[in-house]
Amino acid sequence: MEATGFVHKYPDNVDTDVIIPARYLNTPDAKELAAHCMEDIDPEFIHKVQKGDIIVGGANFGCGSSREHAPLAIKTAGVSCVIAATFARIFYRNSINIGLPILECPAASAAIQNGDKVKVDFDTGVITDETTGETFQAQPFPPFIQNIIQAGGLMNSIAE
Amino acid sequence: MGMTMTQKILAAHAGLETVEAGQLINASLDEVLGNDITTPVAINEFKKAGFDKVFDNTRINIVLDHFVPNKDIKAAEQSKQCRDFANAHGIVNFFDVGEMGIEHALLPEKGIVTAGDCIIGADSHTCTYGALGAFSTGVGSTDMAAGMATGKCWFKVPAAIRIVLTGALHPAVSGKDLILHIIGKIGVDGALYKSMEFTGPGVASLSMDDRLSVCNMAVEAGAKNGIFPVDEVTVAYLTGRSQRPWTVYEADEDAVYDETIEICLDELEPTVSWPHLPENTKPASQGKEIKIDQVVIGSCTNGRLEDMEAAWKILKGKHVAKGVRAIIIPATMAIYRECLVRGWTTDFVDAGCVVSTPTCGPCLGGYMGILAEGERCVSTTNRNFVGRMGHVKSEVYLASPATAAASALTGYITDPRTI
């Protein structure tokens, strides 16, 4: 599985309150949530994001609340993958559980710039910045987690 | 190789003799929790995957606390969806308006969670119950759905940071000041993926309400859980309250810790987190220049009876500063009632405060105290991220109930020892 898209870059400690502010948590509807994705850190994001684009964050991406609405909003906005130096743990497991691909790679997080075109190979964990030609190796998921991802999320994997 | 307290609880719940940090396990759950924001997503996932039965209707807890009494039509629809699901599945621990409380104050108070438990909740502050000697962690709605269906959850066994406490807190310093101090020291990702295991002779001096505040904010340092050993304070709290027999786990003497941090409680002073991260801590005494518009005293972090008492001792017989809106929110109906019986509610109102029924409301910028552009709030809640309590250009300063009450009286951030 691969994804290619343009990068929207953010700093360290992007929290779930800026990914999807709590004032919009009065609905579980993914499309309504996606319409406000990243609103309190980047109000233009939702107007410029294209299907397949990639979010690159710094350390501790997705810290704060357990709201699964955050990865759900990102996924539904059309984002194909989130790359970060590290993820907050609840965001990390929520992304796996709902089938939003994420990769931890401090080197890629540091080097990739806003607007770069990036290709991600999920099978090998290789991240290629097509704008600069640089490549990075992300940690592959352990088999247990790969099984959840391949089943299309946690509920599918336990229903099997 | 020895195990930490957290690792021992996880091993027991996974049916394994030993586990080690990094190991992936499938553990049995004693309790599963969700609220009016996260449960609707879990219900949708539960149904979508084709489940029609919960694993045990006595082990699932649904607490309407974030937006109740409902703030708008959409919030009312979410509560209704939770109510209908609870009725359809005979969920015993479903808590609606009139009997609800903020989930992490309510479950310990009712004795639903107890020492030795393995608990997940679709709310990040589920780590609160570590105060009782339980393993307890926040997860998302899909994990809640899977937990409701199977009674199990996958975990990566965490490594640990040991926090050794010595001495005792000054009377005006609380568990909130301790956890803010720790987050200031190690940073908002200083315990990422790890457990924070508290130990040392200073533990005995901390009340249960202090411990609940400390574990509540373990997640604000990125931790998977915070946990206290079971001692006389724990046993006194659980006796006559715990609905199930409890199990005491202790860390092995040769348990492995990534890091050990020593904290002398005597040296701590009232501490405040400046915007916009909980790690931006300074002594409250440095806040004289920070004029404030609002004070919130409540939340899953600091809405318990000792928190109300700390605020009452400072506010009784006085009046909040002109221009400060002071909002007090007892965290459960039992605490709300106790404030009435003890006359504290009257004193709060006479001091110019408003007193609300339990709700998470303002903490997450839901309702009941939203900030306008440029406004500042001293709050006993747990997060001060950009826009957390309202406008993206508003500011939240995290503090203890004593510091918040003292600041309400003066109109600027105030060390409660000066009142």
Automatic annotation (TrEMBL), chain A:
Heterodimer of LeuC and LeuD. Belongs to the LeuD family. LeuD type 2 subfamily. InterPro entries: Aconitase/3IPM_dehydase_swvl, AconitaseA/IPMdHydase_ssu_swvl, IPMI_Swivel, LeuD, LeuD/DmdB_bac, LeuD_type2/HacB/DmdB. NCBIfam families: leud (TIGR02084), LEUD_arch (TIGR02087). It is an enzyme of class 4 (lyase). It holds the Pfam family Aconitase_C. One of its GO terms (molecular function) is 3-isopropylmalate dehydratase activity. This is 3-isopropylmalate dehydratase small subunit. PANTHER family: 3-ISOPROPYLMALATE DEHYDRATASE SMALL SUBUNIT 1, 3-ISOPROPYLMALATE DEHYDRATASE SMALL SUBUNIT 2-RELATED-RELATED. Residues 39-103 form the Aconitase A/isopropylmalate dehydratase small subunit swivel domain. The lineage of its organism: Bacteria, Bacillati, Bacillota, Clostridia, Lachnospirales.
From TrEMBL, chain B:
Residues 7-411 form the Aconitase/3-isopropylmalate dehydratase large subunit alpha/beta/alpha domain. SUPFAM superfamilies: Aconitase iron-sulfur domain. Its cofactor is [4Fe-4S] cluster. GO terms for molecular function: 3-isopropylmalate dehydratase activity; 4 iron, 4 sulfur cluster binding; metal ion binding. It is an enzyme of class 4 (lyase). [4Fe-4S] cluster binds at C300, C360, C363. GO terms for biological process: L-leucine biosynthetic process. Keywords: 4Fe-4S, Amino-acid biosynthesis, Branched-chain amino acid biosynthesis, Iron, Iron-sulfur, Leucine biosynthesis, Lyase, Metal-binding. PROSITE patterns: ACONITASE_1, ACONITASE_2. Binds 1 [4Fe-4S] cluster per subunit. Its EC number is 4.2.1.33. It catalyses: (2R,3S)-3-isopropylmalate = (2S)-2-isopropylmalate. It holds the Pfam family Aconitase. NCBIfam families: hacA_fam, IPMI_arch, LEU2, PRK00402.1. Belongs to the aconitase/IPM isomerase family. LeuC type 2 subfamily. Catalyzes the isomerization between 2-isopropylmalate and 3-isopropylmalate, via the formation of 2-isopropylmaleate. This is 3-isopropylmalate dehydratase large subunit. The gene is leuC.
